Predict the 3D structure of the following.
Amino acid sequence: MNETLKSLRFTFLAVIAALFVSAFIIVITDIEALGDGNFGQAFNTLGTAYWGLFKGSFGSLRAISNTITGATPLLLAGLAVSSAFKAGLFNIGATGQMLAGAITGLWVGFAFQLPPIIHVPFALLAAAVGGALFGAIPGVLKARTGAHEVITTIMLNGIAGFTVLWLLKTELFKREGRDDAISKFVEDSARLPKLFWFMGKRIDLLAHTGFIVALLATFAFWWLLRKTTLGFEMQATGFNQEAARYAGMKTKSLMVVSMAIAGAFAGLAGGSEVLGLYGYASGTVAGDIGFDAIAVALLGRSTPIGTLVSALLFGALQAGGRQMQVDTDVPIDLIIVLRALIVMFIAAPLLVKAIFRVKGDAKAFGQTFRGWGG
Amino acid sequence: MKFELRGITKRFPGIVANDSVDLEVSTGEVLALIGENGAGKSTLMNVLYGIYRPDEGELRIDGAPQHFSSPADAIAAGIGMVHQHFMLVPVMTVAENVVLGVEPTGRFGSLDINEARRMVKEVSEKYNLDLDPDAIIEDLPVGVRQRVEIVKVLMRDAKIVVFDEPTAVLTPSEILEFFEIVRSLVAAGRGVIFITHKLKEALTIADRINVLRRGKVVGEAIPKKTTESEIAEMMVGRAVQLIVNKKQAVPGEAMLKVDNLSVVEPDGRTVVDGVSFEVRTGEIVGIAGVQGNGQTELVEALSGMRRAATGSISIADRDVSHDSPRERHAAGMAHIPEDRQRQGLVTEMSIMENLVLTRYHDAEFSSGIRMKWDVAKARSNELVAAYDIRTNDPSQPASTLSGGNQQKVIVARELSRDIRLAVAAQPTRGIDVGSIEYVHAQIVKERDAGVAVLVVSTELDEVMSLSDRVLVMYRGKIVADVDPKKVSHMDIGLYMAGSRPAGAAAS
Amino acid sequence: MTTAMPERVVSAEQRKRARSVGITYLVLAMVCFFVFTRRPGDAGFRITETSQFTLPAQGFGWALGIALVAVAAAQLLRGFGRLANVVLALATASFFMSFLAWAAAGDSFSFVGMLQDTVSRSVPITLGAIGGILSERSGVINISIEGMLLAAACTSAIGASLTNLWLGTLIGVLTGMALAAILAVMSIRYKVDQVIVGFAINFFALGITSFISFRVLVPNRDTMNSLLPVTPIRIPLLADIPFIGTIFFDQTIFVYFSFAAVALATWGLYRTKWGLRTRAIGEYPKAAGTLGVDVNKLRYRNLLLAGAVAGVGGAWWPIGIVGRFDQNITNGRGFIALAAVIFGRWHPVGALCGALVFALAEAVRLKIGNFDTGIPSEFLIMAPYVVTIIVVAGFIGASRAPKAAGQPYEDQ
Ligand SMILES: Nc1ncnc2c1ncn2[C@@H]1O[C@H](COP(=O)(O)OP(=O)(O)O)[C@@H](O)[C@H]1O
Ligand SMILES: [Mg+2]
């Protein structure tokens, strides 16, 4: 318990430090105000920006809905990165896996006519399978040739991105009367219901039950790690692959299975965006979520609860960032900076210790990467 | 010149590795520093060599206090060290390794490799250490690597040379050669600190002996005026049995049969070369040999960690050559791997998880995909008690255990099953005497219960005292099959070096 | 650690590798037969402004296909021994020519222009890769090449717009060094996982440059993000050599700098005291440390150097070619550079080859895009990614990364 508290304190301090650095950035880039020597205005901008950040994330039911909407794919994709980390693999390919899941989910979503009670799970399953199959590729490449997943997943992201752009223009997926990369709509029966559907009048709120799927997935991840032989094998391999091999575990197939599981989570992320948020797919359906998911997993130290909390935090930052952009002229890209800083500070507890002069030993983030292999 | 360590204390998290240690050595003498594994010998020498800064105490040279902030300072002050684990860059040449840090340079900082070669030749010829400056380190046998280390030290003109457990990797005859080198160093006016945990060696070569126990100097001795058992008692703190207590073996039928087994490296080198032997129930067969003669690869092939190129392996007349490690495990084979921390344990996981690491899939511990953690917990509590694993909480990570207790976790896990064959590689490497005795006793107990045991060890004493039959491996082949009670250490040493004792029948 | 045996047996792995190369030849032959023979007409390869050579697309396809079948048979039956790599290189080059002939059948295109473009585009990848090699050779994994390129591109655009091209480049260099300093302090002093810091730096660079782009550059486009890029410098005499001269000696100073950097890095790493120490601390830092080499100081210095080289690479975009900074202008080239490092087995010349291969793929796409080959453009854009995967999967098994890369050094 004490351990948890200590690591929570470091997380908190890291977020504070990151907010400080970002504030500095906002102020010094307020060229007009600074050019006029008007420091007051620069700080005013800062205040408005951070207030917008809060208002847009938790200030109203709509804000909360937006936070949840943003957190949903981040959580699922974050699980994709976390689960791979647990098996000692660095999955940078959540973007590609999301796209794969988005496409398979999309296809099942429009190609079948089924009652919702079957159609929704079927489409989600398809998304998970699509992501899993695509996710397994870097696993197979690593198991068979030793090709490092950091490289192959980055490349597969590019391949997935352009394949999707092409697919969306084919007859099968293309939306009637459009020439750009945008798909048909899925059947209504395949749409994930809105989260706040019970509040009859508030159907304009975006949050959808993909969030419930994400929570279930988080629970599944916890169950996998804590209760199953597979989870035990994955973690043993993640900590010490050689010892796992000596213990008779099939570490190469575990690589493939772990990447497939990771891909399934990411595929669900893509599926839930298509079936929940948009109702169709476009080239940007995955956006930067797969990349942000790395930050989510790092921040959450790859644990189920940690991933959940940091996905919510990042969802809030995103929702708030949009509000901030509306209220001031501070672009939402600041959120990327903020995330980078949070990750940096989280990863460097020794640095946070030095800044805030806290005592006690800081546990460094476990090593994710053990050289290039080969 | 006189080098003195005064009141050196060095702490690591949770342990005092050196506790106000005083030590002195002068040029022209050999000081032996002996002590059990973990006594703090290497730490003390690393302090002397400027790698660690002591928490308390200081170093004086001819009475003048020194403050080393890095090995560079120690080297400049005339201290040289041959480390326990060689400090050589494996992919580089001998010459490159030797001149690293004192590179001869030409224009624009370019490296004068011819001058480097010449320097190596000069020093190695002067001390009669045969070396090829252009050989790549990783292609060289350990004995030669040690010579490279020695040349490195001599090149820097050290007044005091520290050798940290240099004999651990040498054959008995190479040890004699090594002693010659030490004598010539002393004759050339240098001082030597010789670290070992083998008493005989210290008694042979040293002018004085210092004994370290749990970070403290617990005694000093002059070789002529002391006995082996006296020093042993100082080392361990109690009277030690230097021999393994066991009854005459009663071997039964052959349990493990290895026939014409070869192992080939990916780059085409044959590292195990047509090996055939048997291990019968109720006997302990030991495999002796200098490290790097194919023992590691032989064990890997036996345990299924590596494919054999030719030959067959059978357990109780069932061919397991193509079985996976897990299938061999199920066939009744226990395996204590050579490298405890890298192969035997997942040190980040709990002691309990490590106790089921090879057995979690058994029906006892899991039902299909679900782990029965409550059963695992109960069972691990039993094992912790039965195998004397010193911990108060099996849910702590295995990394919190001492080396000896970590080894007991592996022994408990592997031997507590219903087994027919046990393969133990370096079962006591780097653990304390108490744990060594314990592990040996467990192995003998399994033998007496009718298990066939294969022990592979580079510690000749261990192989000789534990085994009922000794095989010697040299360059991938088994070159001798002898009864340890009927041959001398020196004879086995000759086999280990690839020759054969005078009078031994050619086979 | 194991004893060398006199006789050399061919291991299972070597056999497998030889077999897969043979099968690859067969696959290439099939592509020749079933794809490259499908488009009729001659393809014109312009090699100077006035002259060109022509390849009959179909004839060449058939001939090469048959040749490849023969080569595959020879490879599978007895192998080429020492000539294996030469054969592989020849086969790949001819296959590539056949591909071009197929794409340009019935038309002509500037072959020399394509190669000139390749060399130019290789600059940021090469320089990024040199940055990667310098840091990984000293034992620090550098995932943040992308971030360094991107940030340097941004600041050098601003710097050059406000002052001049030289100062702009210098500002890019300093930016690369600043990010390298973060990587260095975090991984050396605070012992943070190097991949995590690398990633954080990439995120940071992406975020901050987009932020600056929208908040500062868009409103002040004319003053802060507009410049005239450098023009090519013809090297007297050399540039007049037909074909070769145009490709290599009529280029911008960035190209010459990048070739010089490769030469210097190679010489430095393998022929100097600095290089010996650098390689030692990347392989086995303790060996150097116990001989009095200050491992961490050398790592700091080499990382700063790596950042500086990558900084020049970043400045290539605004100052070497485009004339301004756009959001995410590097678009993953830093990751390609990382792949080039692996492709080149941590050797500068190898990395240069890797960079040229990737740049060639890009240049080909730009040229082939004009022909109506029936291949969707998306697949052409994808080619470098596919090539990377094939290369990394095919080569890394045989490559040797610096052993210590990724591990912080404890010098107490
Ligand atoms: N770098 C280190 N960090 C923490 N503990 C260490 C370190 N080095 C050695 N120790 C501990 O200090 C004690 C003495 O180790 P060492 O000097 O290597 O003993 P010896 O050489 O006599 O076998 C051991 O308990 C060992 O685990
Ligand atoms: Mg020691």
